[in-house]
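Q: Please design a sequence for this.
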């Protein structure tokens, strides 16, 4: 077995592992940030509201379709009279919690990191295919086939949600200069 094939297989495997680690780290960071922003608050999905540690409710205040966010806000007079206000918010308009309409990985940040992971796996698969074309010994092809199979499984896993939920691009209109005919 040539050193070129071994190095290519190790490099491709490292790219695949790096893509999966990137995916895990980005999802973990997203979950951790959400826990930090909502610490002490409980979301009640059945009525679509948040409850603060003082048993006050934060109801949907605004839905931003462009950014795909829902903003929940407590009543200002309730928050301003709360003994925990200084530790909770500095706003005189009441505590606000922002929740993404799209779950991870369908948010913009999730799609960005998923796209990076997919590109790393695609690069790994390209390296393996090029090496398979250049080197034809059975043991070399077996090693490259194992890396190719692993990369293909990773690519299918990563691409599933990416294809199922396309980005929220605006619908083209004639003003966008796309030459749509009426």
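A: Design:
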């Amino acid at each position: 077995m040539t050193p070129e094939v071994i190095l290519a297989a190790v490099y491709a495997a490292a790219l695949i592992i790096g893509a999966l680690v990137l995916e895990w780290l980005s999802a973990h960071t997203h979950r951790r940030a959400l826990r930090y922003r909502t610490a002490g608050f409980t979301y009640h999905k059945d009525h679509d509201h948040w409850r603060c540690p003082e048993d006050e409710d934060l109801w949907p205040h605004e839905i931003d379709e462009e950014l795909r966010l829902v903003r929940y806000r407590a009543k200002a007079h309730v928050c301003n009279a709360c003994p925990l206000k200084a530790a909770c918010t500095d706003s005189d308009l009441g505590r606000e919690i922002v929740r993404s309409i799209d779950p991870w990985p369908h948010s913009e940040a999730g799609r960005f990191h998923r796209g990076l992971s997919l590109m790393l796996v695609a690069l790994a698969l390209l390296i393996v295919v090029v090496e398979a074309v250049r080197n034809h010994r059975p043991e070399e092809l077996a090693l490259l086939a194992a890396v190719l199979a692993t990369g293909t499984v990773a690519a299918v896993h990563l691409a599933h949600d990416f294809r199922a939920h396309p980005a929220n691009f605006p619908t083209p209109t004639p003003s966008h200069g796309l030459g749509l005919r009426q």
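Q: Thanks. Anything notable?
A: The chain has two domains: 3-29+107-168, 40-100. The beta strands are 42-44, 49-51, 57-64, 69-73, 96-100.
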